[in-house]
């Protein structure tokens, strides 16, 4: 069982307390998954700059991993603008304007990439929302939108690498949080691999992210990509996807996995349970709704 949450402020905002909002929402549904928690957060992009975050471990392991990362960055002539080691991760901002997919796959071979993009920063670790916040200072993040996930490990180990969100390996700024199971996962993955795409886990959520990012690279809109995902994917699922400008959801036709949304002129908030939405507006009666089976939708921020 997992819990998902997402929020987007529709106006031209860059300073909303998205980090604290997601902490509150995920804490509301933490009972759905106490093992690990993750956040996909979106900064304002900078021209020709990429944000990367890696799992590097600690001690000598971290030192060796960072050395490998820096060596690979030099190979691609990616100039380091800013870097930080925090928790078990290494965050770096580089100046880069080459072949992004080739660069992304090469960096994955140097160390485990958590996220890559001009805006995207995924932060995930074992423990609850407040545990992750205590280490990574999620509450200080301000921006326009983000998505998050709490996880109960039912099919893999309790470790940061298995936590959600997942980024679309090889693509920039696409992240996903997912509750459910894609039963034709291997069939869809093999089709993508035959076209040259790489995967770094056996998690079906990573495959969904790559599938959607591939559609976007073909000049499909996110809404069109979500529509096709309902037709192409078998199983029971509710998921949220985010890019640097929008968020969206898709829900299978059986609608076994719960999802509730609350929308105003100013924001859209979506979560697995209504209690997560109530955490944003304590003491208020909210006019929420549940997306019908087999539906999808997207929302964009103003730029």
Write a structural description.
The chain has a single domain (2-45, 119-300), classed as 4-Layer Sandwich (Glutamine Phosphoribosylpyrophosphate, subunit 1, domain 1), CATH 3.60.20.10. The chain is 29% helix and 31% strand. The protein has 8 helices and 15 strands. Strands 7-2-8-1-14-13 form a 6-stranded antiparallel sheet. Helix 5 (185-194) crosses helix 6. The protein is globular.
Task: Record keyword descriptors for this entry.
29% helix; 31% strand; five-stranded antiparallel β-sheet; Glutamine Phosphoribosylpyrophosphate, subunit 1, domain 1; 15 strands; 8 helices
Distance between the termini: 36 Å
- Give me the strand/helix succession: EHEEHEEHEEHEEEHHHEEEEHE
Radius of gyration, in Å, reads 18 Å
* Major sheet strand order: 7-2-8-1-14-13
List the domain count as a whole number. 1
CATH topology: Glutamine Phosphoribosylpyrophosphate, subunit 1, domain 1
Provide the CATH architecture: 4-Layer Sandwich
CATH top level label: Alpha Beta
Number of strands: 15
Percentage of residues in DSSP E strands: 25-35%
Low-confidence regions: none
- Main sheet attributes: strand count, strand direction, barrel closure: 6 strands, antiparallel
Briefly note the structural class of the backbone. alpha+beta
Q: Which overall shape is indicated by the principal axes computed on the Cα atoms?
A: globular
Helix content: 25-40%
How is the topology of this model organized?
Layout: E1 2-9, H1 18-28, E2 36-42, E3 49-55, H2 59-75, E4 79-86, E5 89-95, H3 100-110, E6 112-117, E7 120-126, H4 129-136, E8 145-151, E9 166-167, E10 175-182, H5 185-194, H6 204-217, H7 222-232, E11 235-242, E12 246-251, E13 260-263, E14 267-271, H8 274-278, E15 296-300
Antiparallel strand pairs: 1-8, 1-14, 2-7, 2-8, 3-5, 3-6, 4-5, 9-10, 10-11, 11-12, 12-15, 13-14
């Amino acid at each position: 069982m997992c819990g998902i949450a997402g929020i987007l402020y529709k106006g031209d905002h860059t300073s909303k307390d998205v980090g604290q909002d997601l902490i509150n929402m995920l804490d509301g549904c933490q009972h759905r998954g106490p093992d690990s928690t993750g956040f996909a957060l979106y900064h304002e992009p900078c021209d020709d700059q990429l944000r990367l975050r890696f799992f590097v471990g600690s001690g000598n392991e971290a030192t060796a991993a960072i050395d490998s990362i820096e060596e690979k960055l030099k190979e691609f002539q990616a100039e380091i603008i800013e870097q930080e080691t925090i928790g078990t991760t290494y965050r770096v901002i580089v100046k880069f304007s080459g072949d992004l997919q080739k660069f992304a796959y090469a960096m994955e071979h140097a160390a485990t990439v958590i996220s890559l993009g001009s805006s995207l920063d995924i932060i995930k670790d074992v423990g609850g929302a407040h545990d992750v916040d205590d280490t990574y200072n999620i509450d200080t993040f301000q921006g326009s939108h983000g998505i998050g996930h709490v996880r109960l490990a039912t099919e893999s180990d309790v470790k940061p690498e298995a936590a959600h969100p997942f980024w679309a390996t090889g693509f920039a700024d696409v992240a996903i949080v997912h509750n459910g199971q894609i039963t034709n996962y291997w069939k869809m993955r093999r089709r993508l691999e035959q076209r040259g795409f790489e995967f770094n886990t056996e998690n079906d959520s990573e495959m969904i992210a790559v599938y959607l990012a591939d559609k976007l690279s073909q000049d499909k809109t996110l809404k069109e990509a979500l529509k096709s995902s309902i037709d192409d994917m078998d199983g029971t699922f509710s998921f949220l996807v985010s890019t640097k400008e929008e968020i969206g959801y898709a829900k299978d036709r059986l609608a076994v996995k719960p999802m509730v949304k609350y929308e105003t002129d100013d924001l859209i908030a979506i979560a697995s349970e209504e209690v997560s939405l109530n955490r944003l507006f304590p003491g208020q009666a909210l006019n929420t709704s549940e997306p019908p089976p087999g539906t999808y939708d997207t929302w964009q921020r103003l730029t």
